[in-house]
Design brief:
By secondary structure, the protein is α/β, with parallel strands linked by helices. Helices cover 51% and strands 11% of the residues.
Length: 416
């Protein structure tokens, strides 16, 4: 199973927006570019909502049939490990192997010596075409890299081979995620991570490194854009070199996690992937859920009331909601409106504060981040929330489509 050049992960927290999401990919196809949809949902999200991997597969299949989508599509077991992967094997054909928790664990001496032996040929000056600088590789540097990443590499191997033993090696796509680590990986580290994965016979097709800067959920990139551009271009060059050097899959490409709404990065990313004719996987996380909220608020009446109620409960339970996502949100509570104020808002005031339009003076990045976490509140509403999604389907679908196509696809993949 070969992942295509351009792909985009789309979350669908409540499994009601697959058709609206897919319609954006159909529109891209009309514009002359094929982007493959990947419906992703993690064990954590399933647990918080009370859903199952079976539902994700069913809704993706239904949307594909209803809209006559003829190209590939995938269902991603997002951020899984050995303890959680078995829940997904009957339904997923894309596996994001999350090994960030194992970064920094020290390997045993036998594993360390094996790695050093295989990587020793790269000691000295290592030049990789199109990387901004050459690397001086020493045995101590290799040991440092092994101490930091080798156990994580070994864990990725264990997960991959476990899935392969169940599904067969040709029946799923493998992504390796090291983006939820504390420090960004240098291009040199990425090279040796790929070296290690190749030696473990893990046919990684997309890898998600951690870049410098903040990739907070559902909001723009926070950091030095020029530094990100250097890192991204260097990583593209490393991948191109590693494919040949380690005989990795020729379609291996970078994945950007929490990549939704990183609007300040989209134009330079587009320019780099065109310059190198490189592929890209963008994971958009939960912005579809926010478009549901925007649609409900825009609908007014009971829809707006539900949106306000979710905000109020999110505000009151913010510590609880933030706990699983503490590393990927930055909320200044002094800049959040009080729930009593929000209850007085019109539809326009609510949507202006929530919709990611940086030109709108009422847009509130803190309001948006808190509501991004509030899907647990909506899940607890049960039928009240689901019935509202059905009742206001048209306005919600419009917002879901426009978010994916106009704000993401057009800029990142079409360069418009």
């Amino acid at each position: 199973m070969i992942l295509e050049k351009y792909s985009m992960g789309v979350g669908d927290r409540f499994s009601h927006q697959a058709k609206a999401q897919l319609s954006a990919f159909l529109k891209a196809k009309e514009k002359g570019i094929t982007i493959i949809p990947v419906w992703n949902k993690s064990k954590r999200e399933h647990t918080l909502i009370g859903s199952s991997p079976k539902t994700v597969r069913m809704k993706a299949d239904e949307a594909v049939a209803a809209l006559s989508w003829k190209d590939s599509y995938y269902v991603d077991a997002d951020h899984i490990g050995l303890k959680t992967v078995d829940d997904f094997t009957d339904f997923a054909d894309f596996y994001t192997l999350d090994v960030a928790d194992f970064i920094g664990e020290k390997p045993n001496d036998a594993e360390l010596q094996e790695f050093l032996k295989s990587a020793s040929k790269y000691t000295g000056s290592l030049f990789i075409p199109n990387v901004s600088k050459s690397f001086q590789v020493t045995e101590q540097k290799l040991k440092n890299i092994a101490d930091k990443y080798l156990v994580a590499i070994k864990e990725a191997s264990k997960i991959y081979h476990h899935i392969s033993s169940i599904k067969g090696s040709d029946h799923f796509v493998t992504e390796v995620s090291v983006d939820e680590s504390n420090e960004a990986q240098s291009p040199e580290e990425l090279f040796f991570i790929l070296c290690g994965l190749a030696s473990e016979n893990v046919p990684v097709q997309t890898i998600a490194p951690k870049f410098t800067g903040r990739f907070n959920k559902g909001v723009d990139y926070v950091g030095d854009v020029n530094q990100f551009i250097r890192e991204f271009e260097d990583d593209v060059a490393v991948i191109n070199f590693a494919i040949k050097e380690f005989k990795l899959p020729v379609n291996l490409k970078l994945s950007i996690h929490s990549g939704s709404d990183k609007f300040s990065l989209y134009k330079p990313i587009y320019q780099i992937i065109k310059k190198y004719d490189a592929g890209l996987h963008l994971k958009t996380a939960g912005t579809t859920w926010l478009e549901e909220l925007i649609g409900l608020a825009e609908a007014g009446g009971d829809g707006l009331e539900i949106a306000k109620e979710i905000y109020q409960q999110s505000f009151l339970r913010s510590a609880e909601l933030m706990k699983p996502y503490a590393t990927v949100v930055d909320i200044d509570f002094s800049k959040l409106p009080r729930p009593v104020e929000v209850w007085k808002w019109s539809s326009e005031e609510f949507t202006n504060a929530l919709r990611h339009d940086q030109k709108c003076r009422d847009y509130n990045i803190h309001f948006r981040q808190l509501l991004h976490l509030g899907f647990k509140i909506a899940a607890e509403m049960g039928d009240k929330y689901y019935d509202a999604l059905k009742k206001h389907k048209d306005v919600i679908s419009k917002n879901v489509f426009e978010n994916i196509f106009d704000r993401h696809i057009k800029v990142l993949f079409l360069g418009e």
